[in-house]
């Protein structure tokens, strides 16, 4: 069975409270577990980098719901491709909070006041991006 992967960046229109973020995370994990989707969500100061991976129809359905969610804006799809295997096979949704400097270093995002993220859209996740994500996760606790 092939694995489909979508990686995107977005911003919340309004920064969620810790309680709202926790509720959103629990809902996402439950839905992802049911749909056999794995991945990780990095959150920093209202900004999101998320990796979704699984069966293509399920990943596209979840991503479609995210793109329709009015809480998100400035959404940029970085990767939308088939991959040989999952990068985060054990997580229905790994989650970690980064500070703004770490997030900027990870995403290449320099100025929070700019209307768009300057990362180029990619057709395939580069091994360097995947390794950067793995390294980031290795250095930061994934919150339950």
Automatic annotation (TrEMBL):
Residues 3-94 form the BLUF domain. Pfam families: BLUF. InterPro entries: Acylphosphatase-like_dom_sf, BLUF_domain. It comes from Hymenobacter taeanensis. GO terms for molecular function: blue light photoreceptor activity; FAD binding. This is BLUF domain-containing protein. It comes from the Bacteria.
């Amino acid at each position: 069975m092939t694995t489909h992967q979508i990686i995107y960046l977005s911003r919340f229109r309004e920064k969620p409270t810790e309680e709202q973020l926790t509720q959103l995370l629990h809902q996402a994990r439950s839905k992802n577990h049911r749909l056999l989707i794995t991945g990780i969500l990095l959150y920093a100061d209202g900004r999101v980098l998320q990796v979704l991976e699984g069966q293509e129809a399920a990943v596209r359905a979840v991503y479609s719901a995210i793109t329709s969610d009015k809480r998100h804006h400035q959404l940029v799809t970085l990767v939308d491709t088939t991959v040989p295997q999952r990068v985060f096979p054990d997580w229905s949704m790994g989650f970690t909070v980064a500070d703004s400097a770490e997030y900027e270093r990870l995403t290449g995002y320099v100025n929070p006041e700019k209307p768009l993220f300057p990362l180029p859209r990619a057709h395939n996740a580069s091994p360097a991006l995947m390794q950067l994500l793995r390294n980031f996760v290795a250095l930061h606790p994934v919150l339950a």
